[in-house]
Amino acid sequence: MKLGGCEEAQQHRSQPWSEVIDERRLRLGRLARVREQLTRRDLAACVLLDPVSIRYATGARNMQVFHLRNPARYLFVAADGPVVLFEFPGCHHLAEGLETIDEVRPAITVSFAAAGPEVGHKAKLWAAEIGDLIRAHGGGNRRVALERVNFAAAAALAAQGFEIFDAQDPIERARAIKTPEELVCIRRSLAAIERAVAGMLGGLRPGMSENALWARLHKGVIEQDCDYVETRLLSSGPRTNPWFNEAGRRAIRSGDLVALDTDVVGQFGYYADFSRTFFCGRGRPSAGQRTLYRLAHEQVQTNLALIRPGLTFCELSERAWPIPDAYVANRYFVLAHGVGMTGEYPYILHPQDFASGYDGVIEPGMTLCIESYIGAENGPEGVKLEEQILVTESGVELLSRFPHDEALLGREI
């Protein structure tokens, strides 16, 4: 494979990032944004269960993947009052030194796995403790936002006379606009993942399995103090069409396209999300492969050039690069999406799908991913490309800098 400018780009990214991260300011800035959103909605407090949201609001991290499915850890944030972390047994020490947390208590796990037939009783205990906090620190406000809470727990809290709202609205709105400290984290995270992708490609050889290639990426990610890879979206040859096949046992052949979507929760918990497609082997890509790549590259670059602050989601969708008919059926599910500690608000849909989406406004401080997948229905291969950008006061800044495959672009090297 030939990547124009690859050596130069990786040399740039291999240098330690010069900006120092003020982690205390990072955490306090994010918590302030959460409280600002609660106040805007006249909410007394929120209770967060998503480990990504808990980390965003406080910086507290604990077995993040485990807690994505186990409601064994949660956070109470008062709009004007204390922050109380309800932590997994034996883990209270993990929050030591975090200025964003006022108190750590043992969590009450409201799930059948943890409570069995007593789950209803546990829900009442959970609601009683949360209710006491709201009454003590809500100033008489009985409006509370909950995130991913067991139904029995939410019902028990509502039975105490509290008005329940969805916490995803204020949390996603808070996360959508990045603080200056967050942007440093994002750049650092992207630099690490670009190094990991370069290392992965350095080991790409015909005959190796997709799993073996993906393992090289995972090794490079973990060695650089990144958290985890959220998906295994790496595929080759006919498994690149349709998209969303994860890495498997297939042996990669010379002449194959190899497509990757990074989806890495990287350094400081910030997502590095860019996609590239590569040509495996020493030969020349076919005309069909070059056409797929050229179209995907054109889609991303055209849509990226449209983005500016003040543009509505609907306007972007209406003006977007028109997908040729042959590739509409297999189009990627969004035109663009927000990105921070993971994929987040907003989701901006293609014009074919916009009626089932929602409108909004692109704002300075948003970080977005611009997406493309080009592969004909029942076609032999497909190309996945994606760029991560920052919306500035005057336009956009390209955050992902990993080079494109010059041979697939049809350029002589």
Overview of the molecule:
The chain has helices at 6-14, 23-40, 51-58, 64-67, 112-115, 119-137, 151-158, 168-176, 180-202, 210-223, 287-306, 313-319, 325-328; strands at residues 45-48, 74-78, 83-87, 103-106, 143-146, 163-166, 228-229, 234-236, 257-261, 264-265, 271-272, 275-279, 336-339, 343-348, 367-374, 383-391, 396-398. The chain is 36% helix and 18% strand. It is globular. Helix 1 packs across helix 9 and helix 9 (180-202) crosses helix 10. The chain is built from 13 helices and 17 strands. It has a 6-stranded mixed sheet with strand order 4-3-2-1-5-6. Strands 14-13-15-16-17 form a 5-stranded antiparallel sheet. A 3-stranded antiparallel sheet has the order 7-10-11. It is α+β, with helices and mostly antiparallel strands and 413 residues long. Residues 4-17 have low confidence and may be disordered. Strand 10 (264-265) and strand 11 (271-272) form a beta hairpin.
Order of helices and strands: HHEHHEEEHHEHEHHHEEEEEEHHHEEEEE
Strand fraction equals 15-25%
Category by helix and strand content: alpha+beta
Major sheet description = 6 strands, mixed
How many β-strands, per DSSP?
A: 17
Kindly report how far apart the N and C termini lie: 11 Å
The strand order across the widest sheet is: 4-3-2-1-5-6
Rg calculated over all Cα atoms: 23 Å
Oligomer: single chain
Helix content: 25-40%
Q: In terms of per-residue confidence, which ranges show pLDDT below 50 for 5 or more consecutive residues?
A: 4-17
Q: Please, how many helices?
A: 13
Q: What's the pLDDT, averaged over the residues?
A: 94
Shape: globular
